[in-house]
Structure formats: structure tokens, C-alpha cells
Amino acid sequence: METNTKSAIIGGGFLVQPSDPEQTFTPEDFSEEQRLIEQTCNDFLDKEVIPQLIEIDKQKEGLMPSLLDKAGELGLLGAAFPEKYGGLGEDFVTATLINEALGGGHSFAVAMAAHNGIGSLPILYFGTEEQKQKYIPKLATGEIKGAYALTEPGSGSDALGAKTTATLTADGKHYSINGQKIWITNAGFADVFTVFAKIDGDKFSAFIVDRNTPGLSFGEEEHKMGIKGSSTRQLFFEDCKVPVENLLGEIGKGHIIAFNILNIGRLKLCAAALGGAKRALGISIKYAATREQFKTPIASFGAIQHKLAEMAIRIFVTESALYRSAKWISDKEHELLEHGKAEHETLLGAAEEFAIECAMLKVIGSETLDYVVDEGVQIHGGNGFSDEYDISRSYRDSRINRIFEGTNEINRLLTLDMYLKRAMKGRINLMGPAMAITKELTSVPDFSTSDAPFAAELKAIANFKKAILMCAGAAVQKLMMKIEGEQEILMDIADMVMETFSAESGLLRAMKMQQNGDENAALAVDAIRTFIYDAADRINHSGKSAINAFAEGDEQRMMLMGLKRFTKVDSFNTKDARRRIAAKLLEKQAYFF
To answer: Beta strands 174-185 and 165-168: pairing type?
Structure first.
């Protein structure tokens, strides 16, 4: 009987489920309408944001709110909000594309993402109908601006360690909030805040707090390493009286709001980082094509071509993984809606289903951007260290992304933690395949080859998954409950998972491009073959580090032999592949996939 793998996809399931390029959504599948929206975003950045970056970084009075107003007039703020609340009702893939396209807007991108993401979504998805009607239409247009107040001086990644309190007043009409929040994006101009506090000191809850609420005051603007144009202030609550009707969600259930909104935020951060990476690559290409050394454009040098091509390759696999996941979430939304779930519950449920992918994408996207801007500065040489060149701003602005939305270390740990918990609950079968691989280690290796298209690449991906399951399964069996304390092992295995997810996503996209006769298919194949070739070494390194940390003797030797078998790939001339990609980048003067 034929199986519809598309509808059967489960969060984290790519490790144990078959994948089909025809059922994989890729950027080549964007509709004409989505491309027009993307162009609108690009035009907005080019005309309204990029020419004013210096003024934005100086936080010119009223400039950032006015830019958000203009974005709101174009429908870019409320694009993903339901039409009944003043939005455009666009699907999740389109919302992701908007985040990507505006992601090259430096501090503006941060302000916008904070407003229409964490600043608005808590009310949209957890608010009462009265709360939604009061706030969402104005947030959708930008008439009012949103912000999110979770972090405190003593609680960052440990959100539930918050000390801010909320106490019901004697008349039962207000909650009196006392405490402090730090690093609050948009605090300088936001009109409404989602604030987390503990009712009676222990019931972690959320509240909608208007800017003009008595008892709420603000610190000065923070002086930051990057994203200087983004307003970041502390919030102080001193007997801040918030009406009881502004309680958001249920008492004691604030963690559900915080963590579910973070799932969506992590994927959106990846999208914004991707947009920033594409812009930074474009800047570097143009510089390399015009900068001369030894009477020759530096773009003609192999060392520079290597850098440009590697930047494009990492962007390609990140982009592939992002939109593959965004479509899964979009499809899950529709599935939940068809099963009778309320509209406001569908995206939350879909994002929770793919929370593993969201955590991985946050890491993949932010580290791709960091790589691209770092190499961009290197290509610029001494000029890259000067504020006169845009790449220096890209470098400074990039760094925060590995901290936002949960540090990359936390997201690596979360990836494995969620896998293990879902395996224990029976949501995903990991131990069965892991045990089968243990048996395979004692059998004769499969040396057969196939002439089928992409057979070698597909086998490599399958073997990468075996390496992951072998390491994870053995670590769990050996360490049992102690594994939570072995963060180094968990992060090593998480790196193996992320490399494999990126590689498979890029491979499926390249296969689909070739099947469809895409003009860039041959270069996509170059990109993914290069990535897989290099990923094999990185996966081998991470696997060895994990195995050596928990295994010894015969068990260690057998697993290391298995790892070597599972990370062996065919020889490939990555130098020439990168040169072909670089030639196209220089021809187009931009990222071209």
C-alpha cells in the first residue's frame, strides 16, 4: 500500500523516516504572489532602511517607529495575522519569507521581528477575544508597537527562575507587579508589553501591560556591541497596577506562553539571519570584484573564490532546511484545523510538533550568518575593520543572534533533550533503529554500489543517520538518567544531527532542482556534494568526541570502527566545485540559488 510520507511527517522524524524530493518544499516552489511580497520587502529595505542605517544606529528620535509605521502601511507587520484582526491572513511559509527578506535590515529587522513576533503573538495566540480585538488590529498596522519582557538580571535561559512578582490587590481588580526586566527590545517606544511574573511568588504567569500604566518606568538605552539602532532598555515595576482583565492565559501557565512563542521565534530568527547572510554575501561579492591587489581583482584569487563559494553553500543548505521546515509547520497547521482545533491553537500546535527543527534552525541560521559576516570582513581586509564599510556593521550586528531566543548551547541541549523525551513517550521510535544499527556493526559491511542518480549522496545521508543513532542509543544505554549531566556529549550528538538535517535538506532540494530542469541545478549539486564531503569529517569528529567520552575497551573500538564506516564518503574535487559556484556568484553579483 502506498504511504503518503508528506502527511505522516512527525517532528524530528527525518532521522527515521524516508524523504522524497517531490514532497519537499523548496524556495523554487514559491508562488508568484510570494515572490512579489519578497520584492516588496527588498524594495522597502533598499529605499527606506539601508540609506538611513547611520541615523538608525544613532537612534534618531522617532525614526524607528516611523519605519515600522511604513512597514505597517505595506501590510508587512500583520501579514500573518488573521484577516478578522486586520491582518492579511498569509500562510506560515509567506510569513517566514517576509522575515527572511527583511532580515538584511540590521537593527530595523530586530525591531520588526520583536514587534510582530514575540511582541504580538502572545496576545494573538493566548489572549481572550476581548484582548485580541483591543490590541491585534492596532499591532497589525503598527498603530501601536509591541514588546516582550521575560529576561531578568538573574534569569536568562532559566526563564522560570524569574523574581518579578504579581499580587492581587485587596479589591480584586488589579495585580500589583514588582520587579525588573532587562534587555527588552523596543522598550524605548513600545506601547504594549507581554510581561512575565509570578503570582504570589510561585505561579509563573503572563500579563498585558500598557506603557502608560502607573508604576512602570524605564532605564536608559543600553550601549550595545551591535544592533545599536535597536531600542534596548530595562523595565522597572514598582507597585505597577495591571487590571485583572489583562492577565494573559491561565494563572501559573506562563511557561506555556513563553516556550511556545520561543519555538516560532527560533525559526523566524533563522529566517532573519538567512536574509542578513544573503545581503552580507552580496556586499562581499561586489567588494571582491572591484578591489584590486597586485593589479588584479581579488575575486580572481582561488582563496577568495573558496570563501565566497563556501558562504553560498552554507546559505544554500540553511535556506533548504528553513523552508522545508516552514512548510511542515504550515501543513501541520492545516491538518490541525481540519481536525477541529481552534484557529489560534493551530500554529502553536504545529510549532510544538516541530520544536526540534525550530531549535536546530536557530543554531544553523545564526552560525551560518556568523560565518558569512566573518569571512566577509576577511575578504574586505583592513577595510572590513572600518565603520566606513557596511560589512563591519553586519559583523557587529550578527553576534547577538547566537544569544537571542535561547543561547545556541541551550538549543543544542534542547534538541537532544526533546528527542530523548519523545522517544520515551513513544512519539518517535529511536531505540528500535538504534538497536538495529548495533547489530549491523557486527555484520559484514555493505560494499555494493549503485549507478542510480544521487545514490552515493543518499547512502551518505543514510549512514550519517546511522552514526547519530549509534552514538545516541549507546550513550543513553550506558549513561541512563546521568546523560542530562553530560552536556558535552549531548552537544556533540546535536551537532551530528544538525549537520545531517542540513545535508539532507540541501540534497533533496538539489535532486528536485535537477528533476525539474532548474537552470542552477548543476551548481546546486556542486554545493551539496561539497557540503556532504565536508560534513562527513565534521560528523566523524563530533562522533569520536562523544564516543570517547562514554565508551571504552571493545565497545569503544567497535563504535569507532562503525563511525568510520558511516562517515566514509566518495572522493570529490571540492576545489573545482567551489570555483564553479564562485564564477556564478561573480556573474550575478549576488547569491543566485
So the answer is: antiparallel
pLDDT in tens, 383-415: 999 999 999 999 999 999 999 988 999 999 999
Q: Which of 129, 147, 154, 144 is nearest to 188 (CA)?
A: 147
Half-sphere exposure at residue 92, Cβ-oriented, CA atoms within 13 angstroms: 23
Are 5-15+255-409 and 429-588 in the same CATH fold?
A: yes
Instruction: Concatenate the DSSP letters of all residues of 239-303 into one string.
Output: EEEEEGGGEESSTT-HHHHHHHHHHHHHHHHHHHHHHHHHHHHHHHHHHHHH-EETTEEGGGSHH
> How is 119-173 classified by DSSP, letter by letter?
TTHHHHHHS-HHHHHHHHHHHHHTSS-EEEE--BTTBSS-GGG---EEEE-TTSS
Scan for cell 515572490, then name that residue: 35
Q: Which CATH class is domain 27-145?
A: mainly alpha
Q: Hey, what's the cell of 415?
A: 534538541
Q: Report if pTM > 0.90.
A: yes
Query: How large is the average pLDDT for residues 558-586?
Result: 97
Note the helical H segments in 381-480: 390-398, 408-424, 431-441, 455-479
CATH fold group of domain 429-588? Butyryl-CoA Dehydrogenase, subunit A; domain 3 (1.20.140)
Which band of pLDDT confidence, cut at 50, 70 and 90, is reported for residue 157?
A: low
Ranking 254-263, 289-298, 435-444, 569-578 by mean pLDDT, the lowest is 435-444
- The residues carrying an active-site annotation are 405
Closest CA to 572 of 515, 533, 538: 533
Would you list the domain boundaries of the chain? Answer: 5-15+255-409, 27-145, 147-251, 429-588
Q: What is the CATH number of domain 5-15+255-409?
A: 1.20.140.10
Q: What is the CATH number of domain 147-251?
A: 2.40.110.10
